[in-house]
Design brief:
Blueprint lengths: L2 H15 L2 H23 L1 H32 L6 H17 L1 E2 L2 E2 L10 H31 L7 H23 L4 E2 L21 H23 L1 H11 L1 H6 L4 H27 L1 E2 L3 H16 L4 H21 L5 H15 L20
Antiparallel strand pairs: 1-2, 3-4
Helix pairs in contact: 2-3, 3-7, 3-10, 3-11, 3-12, 4-5, 4-6, 4-10, 4-11, 5-10, 7-8, 7-10, 8-10, 11-12, 12-13
């Protein structure tokens, strides 16, 4: 028997031994792949444009999802206030760009008619301010609400996290009101590929999101894998008691983890506002839900999984918007999530332990 025949026989045996649920899942995935390939053949430029849009949206979702997975990896807590911290990040960025706080004008608003240099300075300042403030908010939430309940039943911590979410959401409501608030248009909306092709659309806004996201992801990866504090985080994730016996300050490590999550949420909030041109007090619920879904899809507690899950959610949403319909997008996203969890409960890249980082190392 040749090697090819042996492989074919093994494949047939695995198909025969698989459950009917697995066969249905494989059939659904095969149908979706065929449909997407057909659409790609019909209009390749449109397909690639939607793929790029999905990757851009997924990059924002991935940044928020990393905050969920970092905290879960250390204290095994779903920080439901994280999405609303993201919302506050967008409000901080908007306030910085407006130049006005508590009715006091500190400088002229930075808008689309400002000079290019001033616009760049404004975007950088808004990002830094939102990252710093959201990081401190996250640390404060951990110290005030979560630390006293560290040894309490998980239900008590869960209810507290939901309560903190409502508190932050109402702070945003009082701060900016219930209506949508426009963001200044500081990033050009034109086609970044216009000099090369008009068929493929990739806006400068999309490129801005990627150019900001990639350094943040690389910096986080370096911090977790290479720095002393990152090694402490991985040790605490594996065993808090053993880490404390080895001289690691567990409380400080947990605070640093919440700080990193808040920093990513703040950056994502400003990027979301600049990308979509608007924000609102309850935007954290929807985006936080998508980000939590991405974290679970990729494998909760797995940093690489959070990024992969965020990109997948963004691509699925973009493809559904274009080829299925906007009203079906959320149904498509959560259908994929359910299918993945039914057949792989730990997520795409997760395992059954608490947390692991890229390359199989725990974070």
């Amino acid at each position: 028997m040749s090697m090819v025949e042996a492989k074919q026989g093994g494949l047939l045996d695995s198909v025969r031994s698989s459950s009917w649920q697995s066969r249905i899942a494989v059939a659904v995935v095969a149908v979706l792949v065929v449909v997407l390939l057909f659409q790609a053949a019909q209009d390749p430029a449109q397909f690639v444009s939607q793929l790029l849009v999905g990757i851009t949206n997924g990059a924002i979702i991935a940044l928020i999802a990393l905050g969920y997975t970092l905290v879960y990896g250390i204290v095994e807590l779903i920080n439901f206030a994280h999405g609303d911290n993201f919302m506050l990040g967008s409000f901080v960025g908007l306030t910085v760009l407006s130049g006005t706080f508590l009715g006091l004008g500190f400088f002229a608003p930075i808008g689309g008619d400002s000079g290019a240099a001033l616009q760049i300075v404004g975007v950088v300042f808004a990002l830094v301010a939102a990252m710093a403030i959201c990081g401190l908010i996250n640390v404060g939430i951990e110290r005030i609400a979560y630390k006293p309940l560290r040894n309490a039943p998980r239900l008590a911590v869960l209810i507290t996290a939901i309560g903190m979410s409502f508190i932050l959401q109402n702070i945003g409501l009082v701060w900016k009101g219930a209506s949508q608030i426009p963001f200044p248009s500081l990033i050009p909306d034109g086609n970044a590929l216009g000099a090369f092709t008009d068929a493929l659309v990739y806006r400068w806004k999309d490129l801005f999101i990627i150019l900001v996201t990639i350094p943040l992801l690389l910096a986080l990866s370096y911090f977790v894998q290479r720095t002393k504090q990152g090694k402490a985080m991985r040790a605490v994730a594996q065993d808090k008691e053993a880490a404390a016996m080895m001289g690691i300050n567990v409380d400080r490590t947990i605070a640093v983890t919440f700080l990193l999550g808040g920093i990513l949420a703040g950056a994502a909030g400003v990027m979301f506002g600049l990308f979509n041109g608007t924000t609102v007090f309850n935007v954290g619920f929807r985006q936080g839900l998508f980000a939590f879904t991405a974290a679970v899809l990729g494998g909760i507690g797995n940093l690489t999984g959070a990024v992969v899950g965020g990109i997948l959610i963004g691509v699925i949403g973009a493809m559904s918007d274009q080829y299925v319909g906007v009203r079906w997008t959320e149904i498509m996203i959560f259908t994929v999530l359910i299918l993945v969890l039914v057949f792989r409960p730990q997520g795409l890249l997760g395992d059954r332990s608490s947390v692991q980082g890229g390359g199989g190392e725990r974070t």
